[in-house]
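Sorry, explain these tokens?

___
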Amino acid sequence: MKVFLIHASGKTLFRDWRGEDVQTSWGEVPRQAIQEAVDQNKAVSVETAKGERFVVMKPLLRDSIQNAERGARPLYEYDAAVAAALMSLDRDTKLLEAGSGSGCATMVFAQLAGKVVSLEREERFHEVAKRNLEGIENVELKQGDLFEAKFDEESFDAVFLDLKEDVKAVKKSASWLKRGHFMCVFSPVEAKVQGCVSALQELGFVNIEVVHLGLRRHSPGGRLTPCFPGFFVLGRRF
């Protein structure tokens, strides 16, 4: 089980917890406080023997993503949330995701969609995603190649693709998407965007648009946090 500790300084600790006291450089956080936070699903304030204050809680979605084990470079929560909104995910949505990577975007999608079927070809990434997604019940995580997968026509309410062979993936999965619903393709480089746009056009998709990612975050002191720009190519199956 994962637990999240917030020190009064704002520094945080993300830990695997198996019922023991948690040792920190600010003192020991007693297991009783952690158990209370877990059992009651609430944030518990606790003070160590050194007089240092912590808030102990189950990690929120953002905490889990920011501290997730890394396999492939993750799509962080702020960009994954944009994709979820573009695809109009809700509890009636069955989503196909191809390219689980570290499973970070999958965590966001699972919060909003009713069911996520996520495919990852690379065994090493699949194993990382499996550990990160442990306990999330509405995700069906499969190790497999999209190009070898077989689904019935119109099996999914949304399709999200994060693969190197993006144009080929668009053509492979288009018929699995229900008419009137959205496919979203992530591309980390602008040079590949037009290929995805053209593939969607050839397949008769409408409402095609390109969204340029590049969220820039500033600390209160003005320090700029580097971002990982990319693009979403969105289309609606007609």
